[in-house]
């Protein structure tokens, strides 16, 4: 579908890509991986046609559509959310407008027998068929499904985009891309502005409804669930694996170990052969064997070991000065903007040394509560900061606050004080800004490099309470692992605002869930929280269903059974029966939909077989039927995705 041939990119004297060749096939799900600065975003820009390579070609069919979501973009604020999303269907509006103009012309003309009039009728007919094929009647429902999946509510549809933060406006751009259904989707860090529920929805969409996908993401769980092929960019070369990321990590290590063993064995063979040649070079009786070994050595195909990028971030937070036993005590804390309540009555205590996560949908108050703790905004209730608490705060937009006109070195030099100024070069080297990299202007750095630079500023003075708001945005896998280990080793208190499940796993011991104007405490790790939330929600649904059924049947009255009897004997048995019934029903729904999908796919194949014949190609009704069947299949796939999710939750 897309062929990348002999691609090379050089900036100044540095080579980013060196003669790279690979193919993107239909329905590929590709993860582009590599350290920050390796060229992942540059590769996407080249495929999207936004940047030209130094040499080489990107070949694709002329009618191929490519959708590209960059890490950052300039967004317009002149429409409502719904109007902006409708821009994805501008081709439908243009076609409808063209049909309207032609119909107007037909109504005004009187030369009914003329050749032009007949051609006009035919053009209107063809345009209407085309409109039916692309599903013009259903685009509104598609928009609603996609916007709701990405976290918007129906109340948001009529709001101006200017009322939303940059992260929410990026979601609108992502929605427009998904709605356009391009042949190839290029996504650069699509999960940076999404909450956990929206990430899971996007996973499902990309897995079941998208065409080819090439994505850059540092959310390991996300790329594992979406991709089936991994292309590593390292030191100007690529390594192509037909597996997901977790399997790629294993295979890559096995490949390097096999190469090293083969290399070591060959080196021993070469040494033994050279020793034989040297030993018997001048003995006439061994001349035949010596010449044979010399020829053998000359013909030997040397084993090469792939060059490994050994540059590594060395990150360690300074020892934390001892604080009081309770760095943060919140009692009845609330925040509202006018009539909009962000959260209310938040009451909790964070102990010294605890590592906790703030999770929930965007806009539910996670960053707002952080700002309350930092004293940046007013609030109601009481927030006590403990004795000798020194806060280090990494804001979500920290990287964007850097002065892009100065160098990396000057960025740190301007905030460093005292003896630390003599160690700036060493610190920058530990963060992979050694040598000439420290003299780079901030504006040429990648998103991950800017995040690393902003992180350095956090390390310049010892703190005992770290508040990190989305610290992993733009960080590559290895840097995330190093940061995770550094936080794990940090002996102070940590508050992490993050949507990255894999990053939080094994790191936090308590989760605070923000939602519905409340802040709820959950003990345990992130996956304990996710699992318990599903179970709690399920129990509530089951209890409501059972109680309503019991009341309806009139089998149990408040007077005839004690609360304990009702709870222990009747209710638990009823719950079991209700759960089993719901599970059977969910399994049947999925099976029925899968059967419907198989039937539709068979009918589509039959129509496509007819369209491949000369008679079929000339039959316009077949094209219309094909479009209708594809549209039905899309709708049924949506139903299957939702039904499968319900079944999966029940089975878990």
TrEMBL record:
This is Probable ATP-binding protein YbiT. Residues 557-566 have a biased composition (Polar residues). The keyword Repeat applies. Pfam families: ABC_tran (PF00005), ABC_tran_Xtn (PF12848). Keywords: ATP-binding, Coiled coil, Nucleotide-binding, Repeat. Transmembrane segments: none annotated. Residues 546-573 are annotated as: Disordered. Residues 576-610 form a coiled coil. InterPro entries: AAA+_ATPase, ABC_tran_Xtn, ABC_transporter-like_ATP-bd, ABC_transporter-like_CS, ABCF_ATPase, P-loop_NTPase, Val-tRNA_synth_C_sf. Gene3D superfamilies: P-loop containing nucleotide triphosphate hydrolases, Valyl-tRNA synthetase, C-terminal domain. It comes from Barnesiella intestinihominis YIT 11860. Belongs to the ABC transporter superfamily. ABCF family. YbiT subfamily. One of its GO terms (molecular function) is ATP binding. Residues 2-260, 328-541 form the ABC transporter domain. Residues 546-556 have a biased composition (Basic and acidic residues).
């Amino acid at each position: 579908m897309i062929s990348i041939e002999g691609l090379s990119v050089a900036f100044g004297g540095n080579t980013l890509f060196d003669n790279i060749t690979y193919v993107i096939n239909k329905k590929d799900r590709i993860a582009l991986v590599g350290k920050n600065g390796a060229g992942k975003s540059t590769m996407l820009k080249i495929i999207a046609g936004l940047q030209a390579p130094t040499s080489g070609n990107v070949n694709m069919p002329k009618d191929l559509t490519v959708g590209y979501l960059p890490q950052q973009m300039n967004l317009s604020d002149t429409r409502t959310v719904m109007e902006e999303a409708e821009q994805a269907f501008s081709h439908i509006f243009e076609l409808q407008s063209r049909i309207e103009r032609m119909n107007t012309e037909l109504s005004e003309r009187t030369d009914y027998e003329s050749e032009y009039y007949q051609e006009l009728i035919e053009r209107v007919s063809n345009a209407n068929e085309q409109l039916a094929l692309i599903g013009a009647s259903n685009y509104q429902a598609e928009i609603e499904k996609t916007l709701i999946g990405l976290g918007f509510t129906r109340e948001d549809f009529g709001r101006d985009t200017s009322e939303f933060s940059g992260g929410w406006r990026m979601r609108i751009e992502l929605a427009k891309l998904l709605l356009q259904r391009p042949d190839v989707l290029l996504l650069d860090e699509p999960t940076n502005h999404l909450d956990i529920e929206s990430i899971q929805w996007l996973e499902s969409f990309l897995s079941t409804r998208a065409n080819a996908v090439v994505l850059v993401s540092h959310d390991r769980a996300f790329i594992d669930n979406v991709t089936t092929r991994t292309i590593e960019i390292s030191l100007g070369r690529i390594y192509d694996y037909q597996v997901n990321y977790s399997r790629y990590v294993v295979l890559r290590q096995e490949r390097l170990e096999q190469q090293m063993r083969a290399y070591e064995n060959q080196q021993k063979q070469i040494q033994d052969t050279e020793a034989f040649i040297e030993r018997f070079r001048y003995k006439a009786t061994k001349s035949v064997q010596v010449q044979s070994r010399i020829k053998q050595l000359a013909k030997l195909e040397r084993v090469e070991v792939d060059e490994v990028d050994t540059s590594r971030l060395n990150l360690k937070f300074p020892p934390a000065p001892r604080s009081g036993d309770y760095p943060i005590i919140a009692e009845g804390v609330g925040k509202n903007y006018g009539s909009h309540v962000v959260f209310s009555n938040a009451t909790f205590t964070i102990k010294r040394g605890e590592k906790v996560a703030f999770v929930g949908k965007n806009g539910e108050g996670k960053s707002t509560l952080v700002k309350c703790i930092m004293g940046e905004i007013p609030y109601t209730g009481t927030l006590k900061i403990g004795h000798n608490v020194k806060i280090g705060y990494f804001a979500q937009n920290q990287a964007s606050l850097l002065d892009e006109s100065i160098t990396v070195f000057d960025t740190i030099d301007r905030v460093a004080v005292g003896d630390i100024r003599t160690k700036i070069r060493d610190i920058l080297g530990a963060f992979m800004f050694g040598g000439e990299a420290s003299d780079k202007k901030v504006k040429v750095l990648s998103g991950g490099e800017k995040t690393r630079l902003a992180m350095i500023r956090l390390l310049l003075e010892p703190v005992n309470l770290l508040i990190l708001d989305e610290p992993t945005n733009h960080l590559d896998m290895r840097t995330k692992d190093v940061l995770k280990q550094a936080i794990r080793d940090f002996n102070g208190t940590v508050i992490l605002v993050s949507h990255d499940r894999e990053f939080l796993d094994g790191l936090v011991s308590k989760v605070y869930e923000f939602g519905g104007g409340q802040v709820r405490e959950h003990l345990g790790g992130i996956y304990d929280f996710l699992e318990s939330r599903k179970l709690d929600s399920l129990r509530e649904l089951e209890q409501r269903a059972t109680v309503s059924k019991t009341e309806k049947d009139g089998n149990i009255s408040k007077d005839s059974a004690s609360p304990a009897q009702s709870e222990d004997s009747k209710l638990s048995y009823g719950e079991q029966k209700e759960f089993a019934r719901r599970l059977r029903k969910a399994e049947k729904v999925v099976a029925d939909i899968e059967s419907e999908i198989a039937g539709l796919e068979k009918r589509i194949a039959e129509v496509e077989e007819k369209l491949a014949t000369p008679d079929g190609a000339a039959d316009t009704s077949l094209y219309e039927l094909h479009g209708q069947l594809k549209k039905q299949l899309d709708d049924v796939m949506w139903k299957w995705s939702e039904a499968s999710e319900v079944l999966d939750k029940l089975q878990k």
